[in-house]
Every structure is written in C-alpha cells, then in structure tokens.
Amino acid sequence: MGRILSIDYGIKRVGLAVTDPLKMIASPLETIESNTASNYIKAYCQREDVERIIIGMPKDLQNKDTHSTDAVRKFIIKLQKELDSIPITEVDERFTSKMAFQTMIDGGLKKKDRKNKGTIDKVSATIILQSYLDSNPTI
C-alpha cells in the first residue's frame, strides 16, 4: 500500500507531511528549502511507495489567486514532469497556516517553538493532508 505525500509549498520553504501506509493518519515529515524541494521529493518517492501527492493551492477569501499561486502552479508542472506516474491533486489551503498555529498552541508548544516558520509549514502540510483524508474516506 502506498502513502500520500502532502506539500505546503512556499517561496522560501516547503512543508511536507505523509500518511501511514494504511492512509489513515497524516504526520509531519520535514520542512525543506524551496530550491531543494523537487530533488528531495523525487528521492523520497523513489525510497517510499508514494501513490499520490497532495499540494495546497493558495487562494484568497474571494477564491482568487494570491501572490504565491503562480509559483505553486510552476512547481506542480515541474513535479508532473519528474514524477509522471504519481497523480498530483490540488487542495484548497486557505486558513491552514492559522489552523497550524492554533494547533501548536492547543498542543502546548512553547512560544519560542511556535515562532519557527518551518514548524508551521510542516504542520500546515499535515492539516492539508488530514483534511484531504477526512473528505475522501474511501481512499
């Protein structure tokens, strides 16, 4: 059984999360620099059985593109060329950073640790993935 990999793509950093082999639970994986993301993801997919990639698509409250949307689309095109056998699904990522921050507060993470943007990115990727799992229970 393959895993699902989730990506919260940002101009500077990329948060990653992954499911367990049964695709029931999303867990944070890593935060990496954007310029190394493609190589990292490609290597991860060669090492692990990844059957789908979920990527957060940034939109504003009116469902219009944000300043990051174009960069995410370009990254998707690059991944599709490099990993053509793995389907990529776009997921609405509105509010995930705020939800990630609140999740860290609720989880008792210290204020110093909550300021680490890398932590927010991988928790955001986890929230994106868990919401995808919750909305697709027959995966």
Automatic annotation (TrEMBL):
Q: Please name the top-level EC class of this enzyme.
A: hydrolase
Residues covered by the YqgF/RNase H-like domain: 2-100
- NCBIfam families from the xrefs? RNAse_H_YqgF (TIGR00250)
What the protein does? Could be a nuclease involved in processing of the 5'-end of pre-16S rRNA.
Keywords tagged on the record: Cytoplasm, Hydrolase, Nuclease, Ribosome biogenesis
Query: What does the organism's lineage look like at the top?
Result: Bacteria, Pseudomonadati, Bacteroidota, Cytophagia, Cytophagales
GO BP, one annotated term: rRNA 5'-end processing
Extract the SUPFAM superfamilies matched here.
Ribonuclease H-like (SSF53098)
- Naturally occurring in which organism (per UniProt): Fulvivirga lutea
Keyword match Nuclease: yes
Q: What name is this protein filed under?
A: Putative pre-16S rRNA nuclease
